[in-house]
Design goal:
- This protein is an alpha/beta fold and about 575 residues long.
- Helices cover about 35% and strands about 10% of the residues.
- It contains 22 helices and 14 strands.
- The strands form 3 sheets. Strands 7-8-12-11-10-9-13-14 form an 8-stranded mixed beta sheet. Strands 2-1-3-4 form a 4-stranded parallel beta sheet, sandwiched between helices.
- β13 and β14 form a beta hairpin.
- The chain is globular.
- The structure holds FE2/S2 (inorganic) cluster (FES).
């Protein structure tokens, strides 16, 4: 795409520094106050480095060092780097849910760009929600932006056994609850899953989202596959610093890169990766920030056409480190090239097709050929039916195949506390063919739609050798988890969706082939239950939680705030 290069007078930051009279002069003195000389910033692009490090963000441990490498690149290219810390949204620590704070970080990213003299931004994230959040914020500002993914951790290890973060921990927990391993072994195994800085090393939400923004062209090509501790990661960071300065002069904005075609590429890649179910929510939310339409039907269509060729946990057997050594994302995209829009512009100024022309696969078992896939169709299926009128999602590639067509009686938990209280009760009336239902765990209900969707198998069934059951909720599930878990049921039970009306013993039919999820209860009976239903009291009467509950959209709409997802422009601030 040919765009007019800009000149110094066009720089957004000049509205601050070149403002007539006192306001402009004051900005120079305040830069002096921070130890910057005039030569550091005068008539240079100011590059904001939005940095999601904190001591709690253990996946982003290397970000302070990477920030220095980005800054080095910015200086080399003739820009002036300014670090702008933002909420770290650590998946491991933030409660009640990181999805709730995805919107907080998205707002923060947008407003720290808007309110300060910034010409371009390097977005530093990786741990699950930080990726969509930073992209959503930058999208709403539509300035030049490049994404720097934190990189995945090294392979997990315990007594010589390779372990995946989350996935192997969940398996170890099931074995511990079933009495097959002791607590010490369980603890050692979980510790072994997190060996180094970096994001979870399976194709969980972090790896999925960083890969998808890479596909969309927002990173340097293939950056999402580089392990966090690899020296290539440090060099990629420096290159990001150099490149964002060029992007500013080229006036290559984030909205020039993300288009309907690049979003379609992301959906195709998502299927081939067997990406996290969370990606459906985040991609829809990101698309809306760009004013583009993407809905569950786009995923459903891609899922029919694209097989899973990425053999990574939880759907497969390898880890992100293996993926990098096998050729990484660029090798995978080369295999998918017949399904991709190759003319899409990317952050390095080249097309997607140009970026993958030299890509090679070094291990055909990690990145499979299209005619020898890990799973013959896309990993995710979208279900609709009387229990999910606006949709639900199932990661069929991580489910027990015999459960994909299943009818069974519901065992209902009113909320998560009820689940924890009763799931292991020996008198719970549950059988291997039962369908476990968790209510009140959606965007408003939980609140924040936590990753509770992999409901624990009742202990008495675990001891009998049961390892998977049909589980249904309006919650999400960690991308590192597995099982026949129907998620994101929409509308959620807290707003009176049909999930709220399910009672113990009701027959529920999961028909994955027919893409349906149905509550087999007479409509007159359901209407009577609907009339009698009362919403639980609200969680919040003030603060961010109150604002979130008032404005969050349902899962099929991306769970953004309606006032941020809507079209319209926010004026630039006056500098006077
Ligand atoms: Fe940070 Fe998984 S907990 S990426």
């Amino acid at each position: 795409m040919e765009k007019r290069r800009i000149v110094v007078e066009d720089l957004r930051s000049q509205r601050w520094f070149a403002a007539p009279g006192k306001p402009g002069v004051a900005k120079y003195y305040r830069m002096n106050q921070g130890g910057f000389t005039t030569e550091d910033h005068h008539r240079k692009p100011i590059i904001g480095i939005i940095q999601t490090w904190s001591d709690f963000a253990t996946c982003h441990t290397l970000f302070p060092q990477r920030t220095e490498e980005v800054k080095r690149g910015v200086w080399q290219a003739g820009g002036c780097p300014m670090v702008m810390p933002a909420m770290s949204v650590s998946e491991s620590f933030v409660k009640p849910s990181t999805l709730m704070y995805r919107n907080f970080l998205a707002m923060e990213a947008e407003e720290i760009i808007r309110s300060q003299p910034v010409d371009g931004v390097v977005l530093m994230g990786g741990c699950d929600k930080t990726t969509p959040a930073l992209v959503m914020g930058a999208a709403s500002m539509n300035i030049p932006a490049i994404y720097l993914p934190a990189g995945a951790m090294l392979r997990g290890n315990w007594h010589g056994q390779t372990l995946g973060t989350g996935s192997s921990g969940a398996q170890a927990l099931a074995d511990y609850r079933a009495g097959k391993i002791d607590e010490r072994t369980y603890r050692e195994m979980v510790a072994g899953t997190v060996r180094s800085p970096g994001t979870c090393n399976v194709m969980g939400t972090a790896s999925t989202m960083t890969a998808l923004v890479d596909v969309m062209g927002l990173t340097l090509p293939g950056a999402s596959s580089i392990p966090a501790v690899d020296n290539a990661h440090a060099r990629m960071a420096e290159h990001c610093g150099r490149r964002i300065v060029e992007m500013v002069w080229e006036n290559l904005r984030i909205g020039d890169i993300v288009t309907p075609a690049s979003l379609k590429n992301a959906v195709v890649a998502d299927m081939a990766l067997s990406g996290s179910t969370n990606s459906l929510i985040h991609l829809v939310a990101m698309a809306r920030r760009f004013g583009l339409k993407l809905d569950l039907d786009d995923f459903a269509a891609a899922s029919e056409a694209i097989p899973v060729i990425c053999n990574l946990m939880p759907a497969g057997k390898y880890l992100m480190e293996d993926f990098y050594y096998a050729g990484g994302l660029l090798a995978l995209l080369k295999k998918l090239q017949g399904h991709l829009h190759l003319t899409c512009t990317t952050a390095n100024g080249k097309s997607l097709g140009e970026n993958i022309v030299k890509a090679e696969t070094w291990n055909d078992d990690v990145i499979r050929p299209l005619d020898d896939p890990v799973y013959p169709a896309g990993g995710l299926v979208v279900l609709r039916g009387s229990l999910a009128p606006r949709g639900a999602v199932l990661k069929r590639s991580a489910a027990e195949p015999k459960l994909l067509q299943h009818t069974g009686p519901a065992v209902v938990f009113r909320n998560y506390a009820d689940l924890l209280d009763r799931v292991d009760d020996p008198v719970l009336d549950v059988k291997p063919g039962s369908v476990l239902v968790l209510q009140d765990s959606g965007p408003i209900g939980a609140p924040g739609m936590p990753e509770w969707g992999m409901l624990p198998i009742p202990k008495k069934l675990l001891k009998a050798g049961v390892r998977d059951m049909v589980r249904i909720s309006d919650a999400r599930m960690s991308g590192t988890y597995f099982g026949t878990c129907v998620l994101h049921v929409s509308p959620e039970s807290r707003v009176g969706g049909p999930l709220a009306l399910v009672r113990d013993g009701d027959p529920i039919r999961l028909d994955t082939e027919g893409r349906r999820l149905d509550l087999l209860v007479d409509e007159r009976e359901l209407e009577a239950r609907r009339q009698a239903w009362q919403a639980p009291p609200p969680h919040y009467t003030r603060g961010f939680g109150w604002m979130y509950s008032q404005h969050v959209l349902q899962a099929d709409e991306g769970c953004d705030f309606e006032f941020l997802a809507r079209p319209g422009a926010t004026p630039e601030p006056e500098v006077r």
